[in-house]
Amino acid sequence: MRNGCICWVIALTSEAKTLIEELKMHPLKGDTLFPVYKNKNEDEWLIITGVGKLNVASGVSYLYALCPNARSSFWINFGIAGAGIKVGNIGEIFIINELRDDLNRTIYYPFILPQLKIKNAMLKTFNQPQNIYESSFLFDMEGWVFYNIVQRKITRELIAVMKIISDNSTENMSSINKDFVKKLVKEKVKNLMSVRDIGYNLSSIENERTKEPYLFIDITKNIHFTFSQNKKLKKFLIRWDVLFPKRPLPPEIKDLNDAKSILDYLESCLDSHLLKWE
């Protein structure tokens, strides 16, 4: 498997179908709470949550538990949205730079992805479908809640919300159907892939930054370390790798049978080492 990973969170099957085909995804086997898809390499995951705040909140938590690389993945919420006057035309795509909710005063300002040539807009999330076309923003029923949940779990640089205008003052919700939505998405799949590619690279960087230090898994699989001891062990192993790149650690700790003994030995060796500046 490659280093990066993408997690797509989408409300409707008609919004997701083009992506599922483009990314060659297949459904997870067995019973799942939501329709979940992944590709062969397991570095692209997609969940179809259904419409509404509760559904997207539950779906995000469910996908986070399923995806083995969820914490370092790039998360994208994508779907259709209504648009206020002067925001844009039917079929235009936006990446959201401000998120508001009709019932919550917290405002989020997502990270603006570098080198991305897609328009920005503010999005407001509601509990019920809206036709407030006199407004100056996009509106939906999932975006703010998606961001609110994901930003508690991962760094905000790995989260994006994207919306395509499906209805506005010239074309209201009555014109929306499955075929219409599929057509909108298909026309903007290149834009989605451009965000996906940037996100994948950012995820790769995050995965490298947060990966377990050398030997950490080997040491902890047979010896119990508390949470605080785990953190200390990771710190010591990183230092060991820097200070003693040609000094294998396993032979030196093979006779140490508990966490405290290993940590004490590492700390003693590291603290007694004198750096030679040349």
What this model shows, in words?
- With 278 residues, the protein is of the alpha/beta class.
- Helix content is 37%, strand content 19%.
- The protein has nine helices and nine strands.
- The protein has a five-stranded mixed beta barrel.
- The protein is elongated, with a radius of gyration of 23 Å.
Topology:
Blueprint: E1 6-10, H1 13-22, E2 26-27, E3 36-38, E4 44-48, H2 53-66, E5 74-83, E6 93-101, E7 119-125, E8 138-140, H3 143-150, E9 159-167, H4 178-187, H5 189-210, H6 216-220, H7 227-243, H8 250-253, H9 259-272
Parallel strand pairs: 1-4, 1-5, 5-9, 6-7, 7-8
Antiparallel strand pairs: 2-3, 3-4, 5-8, 6-9
In percent, how helical is the residue content? 25-40%
Silhouette: elongated
The topology string of helices and strands comes to: EHEEEHEEEEHEHHHHHH
Mean pLDDT: 93
Question: How would you characterize the largest beta sheet?
Answer: 5 strands, mixed, barrel
Low-confidence stretches: none
Give me the CATH fold name of the largest domain. Rossmann fold
Give the spatial strand order of the biggest sheet.
5-8-7-6-9
Tell me the structural class.
alpha/beta
Strand content: 15-25%
Radius of gyration, in angstroms, nearest whole number: 23 Å
What's the count of strands? 9
CATH class of the largest domain: Alpha Beta
Oligomer: single chain
Second CATH tier, the architecture of the largest domain: 3-Layer(aba) Sandwich
Number of helices: 9
Termini, distance in Å? Answer: 40 Å
The figure for the number of domains is 2
CATH superfamily placement of the largest domain = Nucleoside phosphorylase domain
